[in-house]
Specification:
about 40 residues, alpha+beta, two-stranded antiparallel ribbon, 1 helix, 2 strands, about 25% helix
């Protein structure tokens, strides 16, 4: 997944696993620039 702006492109990996490690998930959330709440299951 990529997010492009005027001066940079941010690439966020999307792992193809049934479960991912917590550190990997935290890294994806941080790189996405989105709030953590969007990744939580209600």
């Amino acid at each position: 997944m990529q997010k492009r702006s005027e001066d940079t492109t941010i690439t966020v990996p999307i792992p193809d696993y049934a479960e991912i490690r917590i550190g990997t998930l935290q890294s994806i959330i941080r790189q996405s620039g989105l709030p953590r709440s969007l990744f939580e299951i209600p």
